[in-house]
Amino acid sequence: MVRAGSAGSAGSAGSAGVTAGPTLAVVAREAGVSVPTASKVVNGREDVAPETRRRVTEALDRLGYIRRPRFDGGRAPRLVDLVVRSLETSGAGSVLHGAEDAAHDAGLELVVSAALTRDRPEASGRGWLDKLVLRGSWGVLFHLAELSDPQYAWLRQHRIPFVMIDPVLEPPAGVVSVGAANWQGGVTATEHLLALGHERVAVVAGHRHSLCADARIAGYRSALAAAGVRHRPEYVRHAGAGESAAGRRMRELLELPEPPTAVFAGSDRMALGVYEALAERKLRVPDDMSVVGFGDLPEARWLTPALTTVRQPLSEMAATALRLLLRMMDGHRPESTRTELSTRLVARASTAPPRDVSRPPGEVR
Question: Rounded CA gap, 180 and 166, in Å?
Fold first, then answer.
């Protein structure tokens, strides 16, 4: 079962080894309210005055009260949260599909939330974390670029099991994450272009120092070295995650004295920006420039020509993360904090052998 939830992050304690904390009666006495009133705040009831809610919430925080899952007829509901960057992307749809299937198989209920963004002032507070705890969740899956240090600390303090799905930045030590084999994906994409005869292969990557971008660039460089092809630093460009920045980096590559004949884009969205920049110059894919993406999102098939790309198994990653979380909820620690699923090349129409370099770009054969 999937239920809609509010903004983004954590589920409730309920994991093995949680020590006893102050009782609700102690919290009520500290806040100067009755136990039933304190219980209403803990359970997210709306019929509490704002000032009373504030006093109880501050007492809960001050005393370190751990909100445990609600019980129904003696059985704790097996509820987990999935927090995604946005509900508007096809990538989020793939993550949701994988997590929901795995949750269904495990008899869990899944609450899906879109994360608060940093430009919203309440994102820096703890209210959004508390809401998930009050819901009685046992654990959380995060499909976010990163969490803040205070958020990590809050999750540790409340002993809430969680797993990161495809984090952009390296998580702190001990944080469990599931990702793709990005290094191997970079190797595979570059080897495909080299096998077609390209030697001037560029890469338009994501953010500097991001976990996935660094690994894909490392794979790209490794494939060049294995083939005996000289690595050109000017062929490596960082563009963030969007198509507009990728388009700017592609235009820079076209201005080089010796522009590339092929480009490995760090994501399918970035490949779209590469396509647009090439179209502005009336350059054709793949006649004038071969392009490989990363992700194999539905958009890759909709582009003209259809995009050759490295498949990132987002649904399988989410399902794997859910199964790891389930074990953590039952008190088991994964053998490794990092799990990587394999990638594979999906060859379509956007790659071909390089044209005769004696002809200027765009010249008709």
Answer: 7
Examine the pLDDT at 88 and tell me if it is beyond 90.
no
- Among candidates 28, 88, 90, which has minimal Cα distance to 63? 28
Q: What is the mean pLDDT of residues 245-262?
A: 97
CA distances from 244 to 247, 249, 274, 312 (A): 5, 9, 9, 22
Tokens of 77: 């509901």
Q: Residues 192, 198, 202, CA angle at the centre, nearest 5°?
A: 85
Backbone φ and ψ of 166, nearest 5°: 50, 55
The model carries a pTM of 0.76
pLDDT in tens, 188-215: 999 999 999 999 999 999 998 899 999 9
Q: Is 341 left (phi over 0), alpha (psi -120 to 50) or beta?
A: beta
* Three-state DSSP state, 80: strand
- Tokens 């976010």 -> residue: 144
Spatial contact of 341 and 178, defined as CB atoms under 8 Å apart:
yes
Cβ partners under 8 Å of residue 186, min gap 6? 203, 215, 216, 217, 218, 219, 220, 222, 223, 264
User: 42: pLDDT confidence band, cut at 50, 70 and 90?
Assistant: confident
Q: Do 175 and 244 touch, CB atoms closer than 8 A?
A: no
Tokens of 329: 């909820």
